[in-house]
Amino acid sequence: MKLKSVMFLILTAALAVSLAACGGSSSTSRPGGSGGDKSTASGSGEKPAAPIKARLAHSGASESNLDLLVKDFAKAVKEKTDGRLDITVYPAGQLYNDVDTPAAVTTGSVELGLNSSTLWADAAPSVEVFSIPALYPTSEQVHQALDGEIGDIIKDEMRAAGAEPIAWIDYSYVYFASKKVPLTSKENWKNKNQTARMRNGLRRWGRCL
């Protein structure tokens, strides 16, 4: 028997970086001035603000689909901010591995990170709702949940921990497979060795049976 649960990745940013990138002009306003950004005006004597440098850490292999995806993201951000936000991508766990990324992002040790959703369970316990097997049988239901109230709850929990969720990346499903005994009750899990990415999802699922 096979059971499946949702697997997705979360692209997150440290809140400080998110606010700096979205906060408008970095120049200091002048009380009583005529308004507008004077930092790049001809003859003003002021240099343009230096770009914000940010690092994006993930564990995917270099030049893998995930790596190419976030590199395209970094390129698009640089273009759309006119170079004001410059993101350098560090693949293959060069900075932080999948497990360590949440703590690195929430403490500001790295500016952005991409990693497995289940590893955010300590900071955002509600994310493990997607780890309960068979709760969301279709990808469409998962997307609707993330776009609705459940997604808002997860975002609020992550923001409270110091991270701004930028994007959810659908990574399809992971499966629980049993070779001999159907996994239909808590008793079926006893004395079995398990390999799973989720942290507490199995225990929570067991309490729901």
CATH architecture: 3-Layer(aba) Sandwich
* Main pleated-sheet profile: 5 strands, mixed
Please provide the count of β strands. Answer: 5
What is the 3D shape? elongated
Number of helices: 6
Mean pLDDT score: 79
The CATH topology comes to D-Maltodextrin-Binding Protein, domain 2
What is the CATH homology-level superfamily?
Bacterial extracellular solute-binding protein, family 7
SSE pattern: EHEHEHEHHEH
How much strand? 15-25%
How are the strands ordered across the major sheet? 3-2-4-1-5
Low-confidence stretches: 24-43
**CATH class identity:** Alpha Beta
Tell me the helix content.
25-40%
For the termini, the CA-CA separation is: 17 Å
Structural class: alpha/beta
Radius of gyration using CA atoms only? 21 Å
Q: What count of structural domains?
A: 1
